[in-house]
Amino acid sequence: MGNRREWKLGTHTAHFEEPDILWVKIQGETTLQDAISLTALYGEIGNNQPFFVVTDLTEATSVETEARSHVSQNTNPSWFLGSVYIGAGFVQKAVAKSLAFVHAMTGRLTFDLHFVSTEDEARALIDRERAQRNTRVA
After folding, report:
1. CA 4 from chain center: how many Å?
2. Consecutive 10-residue runs of the chain (138 residues): their mean pLDDT?
3. Predicted local confidence at residue 28, as pLDDT
4. Could you tell me which residues are beta bridge partners of residue 84?
């Protein structure tokens, strides 16, 4: 594995794992500034290569309305190979699904959205997604 890139985004952290996974740990509230920083990070990585984003929500509390709007309006779905949420609660799942629905209605949704309970489940799911992609490409 090459150099590990890490970021601190307010109370949240992220690190990139080669070849194509961004691990994000959300801790506490997500503010508008957090959303701006996170969206910029997605764009920085996604403009170089599409990636899986795995977001651990086990210690997340709330998301400011402005933060949710910013992510919805400033995220390019083509940046992502897939999105996996670890430990999402009912409200978090509803928000994620509603954002995905908006992108699907505009024809911009290009990736799958998944919910799992553990990091191991996330890794297994990504392995399956990669295998399916390789099968379709071959």
Report:
1. 18
2. 81 96 96 96 96 95 89 87 88 70 57 88 95 73
3. 95
4. 54, 114
CB 68 within 8 A of CB 38: no
Query: For the domain that residue 22 is a member of, what is the CATH number?
Result: 3.30.750.24
Task: Quickly count: other Cβ atoms within 10 Å of residue 131's Cβ.
Answer: 10
Tell the burial category of 103 from Cβ atoms under 10 Å away from its Cβ (0-12, 13-18, 19+): middle
Q: Which domain holds residue 14?
A: 5-137
Distance separating alpha carbons of residues 131 and 63, to the nearest angstrom: 34
Q: Compute the residue count for the chain.
A: 138
* For the chain, percent of residues with pLDDT exceeding 70: 83
Q: Reply yes or no: is the peptide bond before residue 19 cis, omega within 30 of 0.
A: yes
What does the pLDDT read at residue 94? 72
Question: For position 1, what pLDDT does the model report?
Answer: 46
Q: Which residue has the tokens 């799911």?
A: 125
Quote the pTM value. Answer: 0.85
Domain total of the chain: 1
**Which of 21, 19, 25 lies closest to 7 in space, CA to CA?**
25
